[in-house]
Amino acid sequence: MKIEDFLSNKGKRISFPEKCILNQAEQQQTMKINASMGISAIDGQVCYLPSITQFFNAEPHEVVKFSPLCGFHELRNLYKERIIKQNNLFQYHISLPIITNGITHALALARDLFFDPGECLIVHDMYWENYDLMFQEIGEVVIKKYNMFQNDLFDIDSLKKCLLKNLSNKKISLLFNFPNNPTGYTPSQEMANQIADLIYEIAEQNRINFLVLIDEAGYGFFYDDFICQESLFSLLLKRKSNYIIPVLAKGSTKEDLSYGLRVASITFGVNTEISKTLEGKCAGFIRGNLSTVASPTQIACINGIKSASRNSEFLFICNTLKERYNIIFNDIIPSLILKGFNKYFYLYPCNSGFFVTLKLLMYDSDFFQKSLNSYNIGINILDKNHIRVCFSSVNKEDLRYLFDTLFAIAINGK
Q1: How far apart are CA 87 and CA 96, in angstroms?
Q2: List of the chain residues with pLDDT < 50
Q3: Hey, do 3-17+69-306 and 311-412 end up sharing a CATH topology, with the first three levels equal?
Q4: What CA–CA distance (Å, rounded) separates 160 from 383?
Q5: Helix axes 295-306, 310-327, angle to 10 degrees
Q6: In this predicted structure, what is the pLDDT of residue 15?
Q7: Which sequence spans correspond to the domains of the chain?
Q8: 258-310-226-389 Cα dihedral, nearest 10 degrees
Q9: Who contacts 86 (Cβ-Cβ below 8 Å, separation ≥6)?
């Protein structure tokens, strides 16, 4: 595997900024007289304002100091341990995760590292709208779509046809998002293995490089027993192909319910030598775009992940969302189907995450949003024919009213 065959022109040029001020300061922090750090200090102690640091449950000097370019080492190790345990990757090499300013930043790093303007990114047609902004508008990447679903199952044939049509490219780049935003879908173990097998077989048979990005926001919010809880990142890594680089974007944003803290990571499924190369390049991009990721939020995530109560706290929230999911799919929707719900709506497969998505069969999304607003109900418009309902933010007592109102608007046309 030659990493140069995967990198963008920008990715090839960028390198670890060894002489940057932050790196010099970190290397010289033990000096008796240290005039290399861009901070205020008295007798070697970092200056801070108690009026600000009082709001953080951490040592003041830890709160205000700069973090390393790739994030605090302790948090990087905690993320790596989490990925390994979740996927039974104890015998496999993965890079040390690089801390990013949310999953959006992780994907943006991957974009800058691997994509030149005009290159293609293959994505299932139900995807987070921010991909358009990140990849198409900013990165000038061409998004090619395939059908995500056929008869309520992941459309593996549509994916295969799309891949085979792009064999002439210098590499094939894919992006998967499970649990999916906006549908709330995660494939079964069988389907996830079919996806990984398909990519592996096409890569090996055609000797073509595959870059596979996995957006794993919301990992752990699983509501059905058959869901594949092993990441596609792991499934591809275990197939051991020299033609495939899996790249994982995940972190605390939803997995630790810390949305506004903006702490996530990017991890590469490559050997040690390539890991070091990619880490240096990511450090260059981070230095040039952010300088560093905020220290206080990384400290909060470190302490939270290490907390003895973290798992029980997460389980409580997960069970709360699962209860709402069960009310929707085992109570509300079956009763509405008996009344003709399917004449007006197609409900996409959902078994995880935070959202459900409906395809509108009679009226457009603007009509429904305006009508629902008059009932003091807010939903998201995805496009002319699709709306997204975030059941994660709706109390269980309000779910029936929400869907009954949606159905009543469809029946009455207002």
Answers
A1: 15
A2: none
A3: no
A4: 26
A5: 90
A6: 87
A7: 3-17+69-306, 311-412
A8: -30
A9: 219, 229, 230, 231, 234
pLDDT at 398: 97
Q: Which two tokens stand for residue 283?
A: 């450090």
> Residue 312 has what pLDDT?
97
Neighbours of 104 (CB within 10 A): 20
C-alpha dihedral (59, 63, 68, 69), degrees to nearest 10:
170
* Cα distance between residue 304 and residue 256, in whole Å: 8
Contact 263, 253 (CB under 8 A): yes
* Backbone torsions φ then ψ of 88, nearest 5 degrees: 50, 55
SS3 of residue 147 by DSSP: coil
Which pLDDT score is estimated for 319?
A: 98
Query: At 344, phi and psi to the nearest 5?
Result: -110, -25
Residue 167: predicted pLDDT: 93
CATH class for the region spanning 3-17+69-306: alpha beta
SS3 category, 32: coil
Sign of CA dihedral 400, 369, 185, 259: negative
State residue 17's pLDDT score: 72
How many other C-beta atoms are found inside a 10 Å radius of the C-beta of residue 168? Answer: 7
Pairing of strands 209-215, 171-177: parallel
The first and second tokens of residue 300, run together, are 């909060």
Backbone angles phi, psi at 41, to 5 degrees: -145, 150
In terms of pTM, does the model score above 0.85? yes
Which residues face 359 on adjacent strands? 346, 386
| Residue carrying the six token digits 């009026």 | 51
CB contact at 8 A, 354 and 218: yes
What would the pLDDT profile of 291-315 be if each residue is shown by its tens digit?
Answer: 899 999 999 999 999 999 999 999 9
Name the token pair of 401. Answer: 């009213």
Tokens of 410: 């469809």
Separation CA 66–CA 40 (nearest Å): 12
pLDDT tens digit string along 222-254?
Answer: 999 999 999 999 999 999 999 999 999 999 999
Q: What is the homologous superfamily of the domain 311-412 according to CATH?
A: Aspartate Aminotransferase, domain 1 (3.90.1150.10)
pLDDT of residue 30: 61
Structure tokens, 388: 């997204």
Q: Reply yes or no: is the peptide bond before residue 179 cis, omega within 30 of 0.
A: yes
